[in-house]
Amino acid sequence: CPECGQSFPPGSEPEKHCCPHPGTWPFICGDCGKIFTVSSILIQHNLIHTGEKPFTCHDCRKSYWQSANLNKHHHIHSSENPYSCADYYGQDFSEGNHLNIHHRIHTGEKPFTCPDYVKSFSESTSLSSHHYIHSGETTYSCAACGQRFRDRNHLIRHHCTLTGEKPFTCLDCGKSFSQIATLRNHRRIHTGEKLFPCAECGKNFTTSSAFIRHQLTHSGEKPYRCADCGERFSRSYSLNQHYLIHTGEKPFTCPECGKNFRQSNYLTQHRLIHNGERPFTCLDCGKSFCQIATLRIHRRIHTGEKLFPCAECGKSFTTSSSLIRHQLIHSSEKPYSCADCGKSFSRKYNLTQHRRTHAVKQTTLH
């Protein structure tokens, strides 16, 4: 180098050495005025202004403006994860910065703070997305339907819902996903990882969203209120499902019998009745069930667990429905009436039994 005398081996490029000298910054960006010591870096920088992304992934067609970013992205498809977490079962990551961000789960560090809301985040991207809440700005627009989004990742997710594209595949079971984050969460089913422990009860969760929902059970907070009846919920999803009770809408129809359901998971469980599938088996007695919720309730027979105590008499029950039926004894409420004689009952089962007496009488008369 004529400026500092540093020597370089044959075939190297001395102008790229990391020793910028005064007066040797001849490469200026015409758009923003930024100065560079190397022409190749200026050329790369210009791509920011043009929006050009010449480096494309052959697996999912995602594009980047730097080859280095494309090389990092390739780890997603190859499942190569060279960066390991020493704190939790050696969890691996494809990029070093992902490992650094992951470490903040263990340390609780949130270095990025919003000055408007005094809210902190563990990632700069989360803070950037949060800023749009204050500005109301929607920068990213869907070319297909015109819907606008505050965050680029939200636009990408939306695009996948329109195209049905699921480029991220689990190597263990072959299931595909539209988002890499969903694949990472799914992988914990196979690894048994539960990264989010509850400080109150010690229960562990595989995702932060499940952990946050669980915390509301301890705090009792229910921030979502139904405008029709005033009932409150801890999750917005639960409120949206509750609204269907008022509208009477049941958008999910069984193709086998035509029965309608308010929720897609109810339909999924119902369809197991038609195909006879019972995938959930009790390890204690071998009995099988078509719904995991039914298996959980059944397991209480073996454990003796009774989670639902009566506030009036202290008697406990294994299911909430059993407690509700029992509470009618204390209230003297009898909501089930016989259409033939007007007699009322506290339980639907008792009404059904009673109706048979009318059926027997009619048979005797004939």
TrEMBL record:
SMART domains per UniProt: ZnF_C2H2 (SM00355)
GO MF: DNA binding; zinc ion binding
Cited Gene3D superfamilies: Classic Zinc Finger (3.30.160.60)
Gene Ontology cellular-component terms listed: nucleus
UniProt entry tagged with the keyword Membrane: no
PROSITE patterns found in the cross-reference section: ZINC_FINGER_C2H2_1, ZINC_FINGER_C2H2_2
Location of this chain's protein in the cell: Nucleus
Keyword Zinc-finger: yes
InterPro entries for the chain: Znf_C2H2-type, Znf_C2H2_sf, Znf_C2H2_type
Domain named C2H2-type: residues: 1-26, 27-54, 55-82, 83-111, 112-139, 140-167, 168-195, 196-223, 224-251, 252-279, 280-307, 308-335, 336-363
Keywords: DNA-binding, Metal-binding, Nucleus, Repeat, Transcription, Transcription regulation, Zinc, Zinc-finger
Domain of life per record: Eukaryota
Function field: May be involved in transcriptional regulation.
PANTHER family reported for this sequence: C2H2-TYPE DOMAIN-CONTAINING PROTEIN, ZNF44 PROTEIN
Stated name of the protein: ZFP2 protein
Source organism of this protein record: Psilopogon haemacephalus
Gene that specifies this protein: Zfp2_1
